[in-house]
Amino acid sequence: MFKILVIDDDPIVRAILKRTLEKQGYETTIASDGEEGITQAQMLRPALIICDWMMSQLDGLEVCRRIKADPELATTFFILLTAKGAAPGEEEDRVRGLDAGADEFVSKPIEMNELKARVRAGLRLHQLNQDLQNKKQALETLNQDLQTQKQILETELAEAADYVRSLLPSPLVGAVTTEDLFIPSAQLGGDCFDHYWIDDERLAIYLLDVSGHGVGSALLSVSVLNVLRSQSLPNTNFCQPSEVLKALNNAFQMRKHGDKYFTIWYGVYHRLKRQLIYANAGHPPALLLSNPSTTNIQVKQLTSLDLPIGFLPDVQFDDAVFEVEENSTLYIFSDGAYEINQPDGKIWGINAFTDLLTKCSQENACNLNQVLASILTLNSQDNLEDDLSLVRVNFG
Q1: Cis before residue 284, ω within 30 degrees of 0?
Q2: What is the percent of the chain where pLDDT is above 70?
Q3: Does the pLDDT at position 85 exceed 60?
Q4: What is the pLDDT of residue 362?
Q5: Exposed (0-12), middle (13-18) or buried (19+): which is 200, by Cβ within 10 Å?
């Protein structure tokens, strides 16, 4: 039931309005002056107020101003009862009433059918306003919930990225040294890499990149990392890259892993023979730089045309063998290292990336953080669109 407050210093008018409105089914309260009316309004919070303009002490105009200034009563529909502003030439009075916050006017003497109609219209508008306020509040609550969920999700993604980072290897020292760079994108991705000595003579090196982004890609990436690190692929010689890729392809068919596939470059370096054998499943080519710190650097792309892991069963992968000259450097990376959107809208590309690594080697300043700084100056966005993984292996 709607609450209506009547404020009028004329007892006859108060009685007539109260009886009329109660017959219409409204809960009606009366006040005999402006101060009492304001007090009643603050207590009752009525949907609609009918107030006489011409009252002693506090007139209806001031009552209206104070009512509308109260945030909890600002949406209350306010009708002024008045003979002012009705006649020609009295338009300024009506303007004053509107400026004070009045929503409607009813002229005296009161025509009851008109009053009833204006009350019904005012209550409809009040109800619409209340509905809008309720929907606004519901939207604000929903937005707060979404912001909270977003913060939780971002925290969990950051924790997942930290976990992936914690699994990555420490740099190698000794006859072969390594330097690693892993910069996750704004969204959790699927890059992983590792390097470890299989025995005293052979070093395994690999980098993989799972399709897509998010938790699913990261989980698959970590699963592959754990399988390779624990050498748990059955009947597999981990010193033979083609066998490793074949076993991975049998174990990680995409139809069984959320339609996700991954690319991988896997190599084994024989320390005594100074020989590198590798296989590549759809991954960007590794770069082998010979004669570093000279103007005669030779760059070899270690690539292949084999499919990524998980596309098709029973794929045969090929090995390739390279002799590694003394002080050569091997770079393995994901496509996030060179697929950089530049401000001009063009993709930077692998050729430009190769030129950057070559130039750094010639200047004997190929610190990976310097390489990263050069890449970030080319990026047109605040964050990288894809994970950036880069492994540098120095063969002493």
Answers
A1: no
A2: 95
A3: no
A4: 77
A5: exposed
- What would the two tokens of residue 99 be? 């400026």
Q: What is the pLDDT of residues 186-215, one digit of tens each?
A: 667 789 999 999 999 999 999 999 988 878
221 Cβ partners below 8 Å, 6+ apart?
A: 164, 190, 191, 192, 208, 209, 210, 262
SS (H, E, C) the chain: CCEEEEECCCHHHHHHHHHHHHHCCCEEEEECCHHHHHHHHHHHCCCEEEEECCCCCCCHHHHHHHHHHCCCCCCCEEEEEECCCCCCCCHHHHHHHHHHCCCEEEECCCCHHHHHHHHHHHHHHHHHHHHHHHHHHHHHHHHHHHHHHHHHHHHHHHHHHHHHHHHCCCCCCCCEEEEEEEECCCCCCCEEEEEEECCCCEEEEEEEEECCCCHHHHHHHHHHHHHHHHCCCCCCCCCCHHHHHHHHHHHCCHHHCCCCCEEEEEEEEECCCCEEEEEEECCCCEEEEECCCCCCCEEEEECCCCCCECCCCCCCCCCEEEECCCCEEEEEECHHHCCCECCCCCECCHHHHHHHHHHHHHCCCCCHHHHHHHHHHHCCCCCCCCCEEEEEEEEC
Who contacts 250 (Cβ-Cβ below 8 Å, separation ≥6)?
A: 313
Establish how many alpha carbons lie within 13 A of residue 17's alpha carbon, considering only the half-sphere containing its beta carbon. 30
User: Residue 204 to residues 42, 200, 265, 277, 297: CA-CA distances in angstroms?
Assistant: 79, 11, 11, 10, 25
Return the pLDDT at 65: 93
What does pLDDT average to over the chain?
89
Of 226, 215, 228, which Cα lies nearest the Cα of 258?
Answer: 215
pLDDT of 116 = 94
Largest Cα separation within the chain, whole Å, is: 114
Torsion sign (Cα): 86, 87, 89, 90 = negative
Q: What does the block give as tokens for 62? A: 């001031």
